[in-house]
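Support reply, case 0932

Customer input (verbatim):
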Amino acid sequence: MTTEVRVPTLGESVTEATVATWFKKPGDAVAVDEMLCELETDKVTVEVPAPAAGVMGEIIAEEGATVGVDALLATISEGAAAAPAAKAAKADDKPAKAGKADSVAVMVPSLGESVSEATVSTWFKKVGDTVAQDEMLCELETDKVSVEVPSPAAGVLAEIVAPEGTTVDAAAKLAVISASGAAAPAAKPQAPAAAPAPAASGKDIEDAPAAKKAMAEAGISRDAVTGTGRDGRIMKDDVQKAIAAGTSAAPASAPAPATAPRAPVPADDAAREERVKMTRLRQTIARRLKDAQNTAAMLTTYNEVDMSATMDLRKEYKDIFEKKHGVKLGFMSFFVKACCHALREVPEVNAEIDGTDVVYKNFVHMGVAVGTPSGLVVPVVRDADQMGFAAIEKKIAELGVRARDGKLSMAEMQGGSFTISNGGVYGSLMSSPILNPPQSGILGMHKIQDRPVAINGQVVIRPMMYLALSYDHRIVDGKGAVTFLVRVKEALEDPRRLLMDL
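Our regenerated output:
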């Protein structure tokens, strides 16, 4: 019996995807729900599980192919044909160890939604070491989070299948533990087995993702850290040691670039370069932003807002607000409410183009751009127009934490109808935000800065913020864009208008 593997639902307004990676090849044994391949859309990465157990048949859509929803990807042969392959797979999972049958495989744990592979960053144990059940064996790094792998049983670490630096998929075997401890002698032949692991050379060494994150957060240069990983790879522990030592320069690691032989004089600049492969998240961000520029007739209009009234209101009620609702009263809830108010008057800013149709949304699913160590993500506050200040603040806080921890689900980043991006938290005074397709509008917030302004013929100092609305000029006219910004400005300069629905 043959089972078809087809493209799953890709989410709202997503009609096609690219086959990024096949984890199985024809003839491989597969289990139900085992990951077969990974698809990339202009929004997220989608994993395709096996709908049935059996043997991988024909792969219809090769890596790099563009496929639509419900397109045929591959076939799986079920039934008797799968039995020999399954047995072979099990035999492979249990290496022969001096006639013992007590070996326990250490497998890659769940990496989270839409994460299909990881890099083995650090082994805390070496072959021959005694381990206790649930003791940490190694750490894996993905482009979103770090994952610690506990020991599934007590015994002796008999074999390391995936050394540090190895990229493993979601169903890979990492190591083997001998529950009885009798397999400890296998440690000696294992040592040379780790050597053939793919070695990085020269400046192409990629540091552990957790290390890069830690360096970015601490504001230290890569040259200030001495790498102890394979081939000088910088690990998270190396960064922590450098921080603890108060290192600010890089005497220890500075000579490293000299390992790349270069001709003298200007050519030695190349030796000081560092090449790091873009994460899939970063590649997706780059592709989507460029697609937005190529597709939409994007235009930006600006205004400025006096934040005095909003700041005074927040100052007056923030303590009572936090005491009652258990969350701090920030500025984002004011901006979300002001935008929802303005979108009701200018609905085309909350709409999208679908072919030759304009789809107007009778709801506001507000995207809130969040910067993370892995890149910019846009979780969505659904039905923001139906929520109060406290509910908005709680939801934004929750999504922000999940975004920074790399735990956002695909559903939490889909379906937004309008986006707010706050560059002011990084000190930006003015910018032109790029649309988040297929949305037709995005509001850029900026730094609140005291500036002299003229009020009633007098020059006074007020806390001012520049606002920027980027919009798709194909469906939003200049009048609508200006009206939207003016309504946001009015609501923030007199927050009582929000209560009175004015």
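We compared this against your earlier run and they match. Two observations from our side: The chain has four domains: 1-93, 100-198, 202-272, 281-500. The CA atoms of residues 202 and 260 lie 6 Å apart. Please reopen the case if you see a mismatch on your end.
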